[in-house]
Design brief:
Elements: E1 5-10, E2 15-22, E3 26-34, H1 36-39, H2 47-69, E4 78-84, H3 88-105, E5 109-113, H4 114-120, E6 132-137, E7 142-147, E8 153-158, H5 164-174, H6 181-189, H7 212-227, H8 234-260, E9 264-268, H9 275-287, E10 291-293, H10 304-316
Parallel strand pairs: 1-4, 4-5, 6-9, 9-10
Antiparallel strand pairs: 1-2, 2-3, 6-7, 7-8
The structure holds 5'-O-[(R)-(carboxyoxy)(hydroxy)phosphoryl]adenosine and zinc ion.
Length: 334
């Protein structure tokens, strides 16, 4: 069988990334240029600044990826691109680059939904086995998705308000930790104890999540401690917050796996890099006899390898876009 090489491009937020993936699973070369150091000055991603840096970076990242892979664009079979959801200006830079390459080199253009990319990051580890449950935990999403086949996404539940990553980042801000807060809370929590009592969000029978109440509880706690003249024990707060946030996603995931009798679980998105979440999800899955896959850290946060991997399966299914493909800031998973 002929090998298929997909060149993926990702630019939905503050990472400019290009990757070449062979047959959906073999990482030939992946280059990621992160703008974290630029945005942390502002406490979060500034969309206009992000777009400008994508413009500056994208050709260098592409060149570096081709050089690393020792390949030319003529040798790839298709160009996979994140068309959404994400920051419109940022998405457009990647999309226009992909369209230009597809046009110049006569390559098919494969549209990839950003969350489908996060899910398919797992196929860089081992092929997806169906039916599976995907727990998507990122800066913009917290969802439970059932998949009976490739690109067959059934949403079982999702957040009613903030995404878990957004909540991590806002809580980190209250604690005066640098953007992005998720990894900082993760690290700090190793030094703390679970001493603050925070409410477990949305303890109900649904597959939905809610994180705005937990965020408000942390904000209120911080104000109350300040009014009483107490210093916030940041490490303890990190431990207490993380315990509750992780427990919420783990218990809903467990319920969905048992109710639906699903034996394969995959975790996707930036928050999948969280050490406690990884530990608790693996423990829970083992307890109920479910096979679990969590991508290596480098494939958890935004990268083009996951886009190229999803692009491979989309390519095999005959999914193609024409040059009228536009960027979408929000779009249901498909
Ligand atoms: O998937 P991602 O790179 O971008 C989106 O598509 O949203 O996820 C970014 C999110 C941020 O909220 C960041 O704080 C969080 O993932 N994150 C973490 C960790 N690493 C990244 N959250 C908790 N623990 C981590 N170790
Ligand atoms: Zn993402």
């Amino acid at each position: 069988m002929k090998d298929i090489y997909i060149l993926g491009i990702e630019s939905s937020c503050d990472e400019t990334s290009v990757s070449i993936i062979k047959n959906g699973s073999e990482d030939i070369a992946t280059v990621i240029s992160s703008q974290i150091d630029i945005h942390k000055e502002y406490g979060g991603v500034v969309p206009e600044i992000a777009s400008r840096h994508h413009v500056k970076n994208v050709t260098f990242v592409l060149e570096e990826c081709l050089e690393k892979a020792q390949m030319t664009i003529e040798e790839v079979d298709a160009i996979a691109i994140t068309y959404g959801p994400g920051l419109i200006g940022s998405l457009l830079i990647g999309l226009e680059t992909a369209k230009t390459l597809a046009y110049l080199y006569h390559k098919p253009l494969i549209p990839v939904h950003h969350i489908a990319g996060h899910i398919y990051a797992n196929s860089l580890v081992k092929p997806l086995e169906f039916p599976l449950l995907a727990l998507v935990v990122s800066g913009g999403h917290t969802e439970l998705i059932e998949m009976k086949d490739h690109f067959d996404f059934q949403k079982l539940g999702g957040t009613l308000d903030d995404a878990i990553g957004e909540c991590y980042d806002k809580v980190a801000r209250v604690m005066e930790l640098e953007y992005p807060g998720g990894p900082k809370i993760d690290k700090l929590s190793k030094e703390g104890k679970d001493t603050y009592h925070l409410p477990i969000p949305l303890k109900d029978d649904s597959y939905n999540f809610s994180f705005s109440g937990l965020k408000s509880a942390v904000i209120n706690l911080s104000h109350n401690e300040a009014q009483r003249g107490n210093t916030l024990r940041k490490a303890d707060l990190a431990t207490s917050f993380q315990k509750v946030a992780v427990e919420s996603v783990t218990s809903k995931t467990r319920k969905a796996l048992l109710d639906k009798n699903i034996k394969h679980l995959i975790v996707a998105g930036g928050v999948a890099a969280n050490s406690i979440l990884r530990e608790q999800i693996i423990k829970m899955a083992e307890e109920i006899g479910v096979d679990v896959s969590v991508p290596p850290l480098k494939y958890c946060t935004d990268n083009a390898a996951m886009i190229a991997s999803a692009g491979y399966y989309a390519y095999k299914l005959g999914k193609r876009a024409n040059f009228s493909l536009n960027s979408l800031s929000s779009d249901p998973l498909k």
